[in-house]
Write a structure and sequence with these properties.
It is built from eight helices and no strands. The chain has about 220 residues and is mainly alpha-helical. It has one domain. Helix 2 runs parallel beside helix 8 and helix 4 runs antiparallel to helix 5.
């Protein structure tokens, strides 16, 4: 799940471990909150927030892998590039658990719509979830081999920035629409991380362009 087309290779134990571990972590967190919560609706809302934040971490690790490798080459950045597909798939797996929490919330409020869900959530969220699912599926080696390199890169480049935009818009919307006692940890920190990640990508692109100009 990155704009650059990765070499087609079988997933090794490390990659499988990241995907399975991340998925189990999100599932365990959501399950623990739902089972321990006193109120079904409140517990489900908390599980929604926590799975969204865990998914955010997995996404950002995949998002900054390539620019970090260009700007700060080293053992850590090389490892992150090798594992970016794993973190991308982990993001998709975690988001599937997040979707499960959304469906549970709707079931608890049926036949009404949950009051915190707006029309904008539908317009942004549903296409975003479909895009994440498509990117996750096309990260599988068998599917990747059936796509042309150009089609794969276009899908993942578009998807990468689209998902970044969805996170950003949802967080900004939450700042203006939702009340919380801890806005810095709830929203502003994540917005800052998003902006930092985008700044890294822009800096890496500028560095690549400058190197190309210098070698021309």
């Amino acid at each position: 799940m990155d704009a650059a087309s990765p070499p087609i290779a079988r997933a090794d134990r490390g990659e499988i471990g990241i995907v399975v571990g991340a998925a189990l972590l999100s599932l365990t967190v959501a399950g623990t909150v739902l089972l321990a919560g006193d109120a079904g609706r409140d517990a489900t809302r908390l599980a929604l927030r926590l799975t969204a934040r865990l998914s955010f971490v997995y996404f950002m690790l995949a998002f900054v892998a390539s620019p970090l490798a260009r700007l700060r080459p080293g053992a850590a950045s090389r490892w992150l590039v090798r594992r970016r597909r794993a973190f991308g798939v982990a993001f998709g797996a975690s988001m599937s658990i997040h979707v499960g929490c959304i469906l549970r919330l709707y079931a608890l409020y049926t036949p009404e719509r949950p009051p915190m869900v707006t029309d904008a959530d539908f317009l942004i969220g549903i296409p975003g979830l479909l895009l994440v699912a498509l990117m996750t599926v096309t990260s599988a080696i068998a599917v990747r081999r059936r796509m042309t390199p150009i089609a794969w890169r276009r899908l993942h480049r578009t998807g990468l920035y689209a998902v970044w935009s969805i996170f950003f818009l949802c967080l900004v919307d939450s700042v203006s629409r939702k009340e919380t006692a801890h806005p810095v940890t709830a929203y502003y920190t994540f917005i800052a991380v998003l902006l930092t990640g985008m700044a890294l990508r822009l800096a890496a692109r500028r560095s690549t362009q400058q190197q190309g100009t210098a070698s021309a």
